[in-house]
Amino acid sequence: MKIVIVGGVAAGMSCAARARRLDASAEIVVLERGEHVSFAGCGLPYHVGGEIGSSEQLLVQTPTSLRAALNLDVRTGHDVVGMDPQARTVRVRTAGGEETVGYDALVLAPGARAVRPPLPGIDSPRVRTLRTVADAVALRGRVDDGARRAVVLGAGFIGLEAAEQLAQARLEVTVVELSPHVLPPLEPELAAVAAAELERIGVALHNGTAATAVEPGTGEDVVVLGDGTRLPADLVVLSVGARPDTAIFEAAGLECERGAIRVDEHGRTNLPDVWAAGDAVVSTDAVTGVRRPVPLAGAANRAGRQVADAILRHDTARPIPTSLGTAIVRVGALATAMTGANRAALAHAGIAHHTLHLHASQHAGWYPGASPVHLVVHFGLDGCLLGAQAVGADGVDKRIDVLATAIRGGLTVDDLIDLDLAYAPPFGAAKDPVNLAGMAGANVLDGTLRVWHAADLDDVVASALVVDVRSRAEFASGHVPGALNIPHTELRERLGEVRDAAAGRAVRVLCGSGVRSHIAHRVLTQAGFDSASLSGGMLTLRATL
Ligand code: FAD
What residues does the Rhodanese domain cover (predicted)? Predict the structure, then answer.
């Protein structure tokens, strides 16, 4: 059996390594266009900023180490430029000319290429993408040569990692993002927390606008934005997305969907004995069913491994699961993470759901160093978890990973209450934020808690009495116009005031984070009021405005 793999990084190399472990005698050839295989693509931004000092640290394996450890035939500088599915061959261009390589099984793991929008001046040498080790080394070289001002185009994961690192290297950094907020898949109220952190570390933001041109200059280029802003830069990082690198395979008859390879649940394509995995492949979203490529390293590694199983253990191979898109990014002192669907995706898919905001501490509030995990959780009307996002200085990864596991396992908010999570004061809380999300969710489902959302503020102010149950000092620091301030500890004695002020209208309660307003909501409901508590309180409201 001769297995030929195109692309020697996450999906391709995972497939090759697994194939070798399953079959000692197979001939396994990896064809990689670039200079390196098995490099740490996810580490590239950290070399730009100097956190990873040497680019050698990004080279996890080499063709020589892979030959020694796994007897793999890894050929760098081998660009696959064509395929003939009938003859079962690929055409390869190398420095020495072209050659044809035959296969019994072909695995396509070509990943994606950075998008280069056709803007005037985009080919200036000061404009760089960040996808390869050479890109990272070139950007690092610019920093070492004394670059002072950087513009990062695109505020997705890679753009923000680059921006953070360039700021850390003491460059003046501006990020430009077409969407209204940074990290477009993040809920706006959480993106606002990440944006504030970026500004704290000195990164300027231009949201809701795009670059229209780069004007090359002698000392610096100028990035021109759609809103007329002109940003001088001696370094421009282009991180506006990536496109599956599939054109040559599509031309040979491979079925693609908007450029990404269609595969079945085992990674099999429409062509005989041709499999595919990684960034170049269409995934199905586990929650919404939407089909799109999901460019994440974990998924690519796992899918590559499973394709090897499909080729060599076809009777027992497990299907490649649908995608949750679980992802995390560090922004300054904060981590920002997400799993499953966000509000926009749920709305687009027409999935009825509830949303809750929590700001619980990552560990017991009374233990030194407590800090909030700003958490948004979406769940269906049946209680099934659909998505979660979090931002915070500590403990974000734990909560999102637990919630990702819960979504994968089909758990409900009730199940979250029962999760037996590790606790001692430095690590968590006796009621972990995930348990609390379950409790609040269960309360919503059985009617114990009714919430209103910051997005409904205008309607609420127009039609209901807003009761702010924070302390007088908190109220004085800023409040919703027309709100009645009754600290929650006084509410039971002052229900008459609420009745008079409401004058038959509904009552909408709020506090700092949603905890005290929940207590107040219970008091009001049991006293006969039409009441609801603001999800996430003023913390969420302020981030939404
Ligand atoms: P790639 O890793 O892109 O590998 C494809 C390889 O195929 C490339 O080396 C390419 O040269 C080669 N190739 C393509 N076409 C041909 C051809 N015709 N002939 C020969 N060779 C070919 N994901 C995360 O989950 N977490 C992160 O923190 C994270 N950070 C990232 C940071 C950066 C800067 C980048 C660029 C990506 C990051 N990712 C991260 C995404 C992650 O790296 C990718 O999802 C993953 O590498 C995809 O693996 P892949 O094997 O499908 O493709």
Answer: 460-545
Helix (H) or strand (E) holding 244: strand 242-244
DSSP 53-76: --GGGGB---HHHHHHHH--EEET
CA distances from 86 to 103, 402, 429 (A): 11, 46, 61
Token pair recorded at residue 465: 């009495």
pLDDT at 545 (0 to 100)? 83
Q: Which residue, judged by its Cα, is nearest atom 15 of ligand 1?
A: 110
Q: Write down the pTM of the prediction.
A: 0.96
195 touches 181 (CB < 8 A): yes
Residue 274 and residue 6: Cα distance in Å, rounded? 11
Q: Is the dihedral of CA 293, 298, 304, 310 positive or negative?
A: negative
Question: CATH for 333-446?
Answer: 3.50.50.60
Atom of ligand 1 nearest to the CA of 31: 20
What is d(CA 374, CA 358) in angstroms, rounded to the nearest whole number? 6
> Looking at the DSSP assignment, which residues form a beta bridge with residue 356?
377
pLDDT less than 50: residues of the chain: none
ipTM for the whole complex: 0.99
CA 219, chain centre distance (Å): 36
- The domain defined by 2-35+76-113+243-312 folds into FAD/NAD(P)-binding domain (3.50.50)
Would you state the CATH architecture of domain 451-544? 3-Layer(aba) Sandwich (3.40)
Residue having the nearest C-alpha atom to atom 3 of ligand 1: 111
How far apart are alpha carbons 264 and 267 in whole angstroms? 5
**Does 325 contact ligand 1 (Cβ within 6 A)?**
no
Sequence-distant (6+) residues with CB within 8 A of 461 are 480, 481, 482
Coil, strand or helix: which one is 486? coil
Contact 42 CB / ligand 1 (< 6 Å): yes
pLDDT for 181 equals 97
In this predicted structure, what is the pLDDT of residue 84?
98
Model pLDDT, residue 352: 98
**Given ligand 1 and candidates 15, 33, 38, which is best to mutate, with the most ligand atoms within 8 Å of its CB?**
33
User: For the segment 402-421, what is each residue's pLDDT rounded down to a tens digit?
Assistant: 999 999 999 999 999 999 99
Q: Which run of H or E residues covers position 28?
A: strand 27-31
pLDDT digits (tens, 9 = 90+) for 505-514: 999 999 999 9
In angstroms, the Cα distances linking 132 to 58, 84, 93, 148 are: 10, 28, 20, 23
Q: Is 87 helix (H, G, I), strand (E, B) or coil?
A: coil
Rounded to a whole number of angstroms, the distance between the first and last alpha carbons of the chain is 61
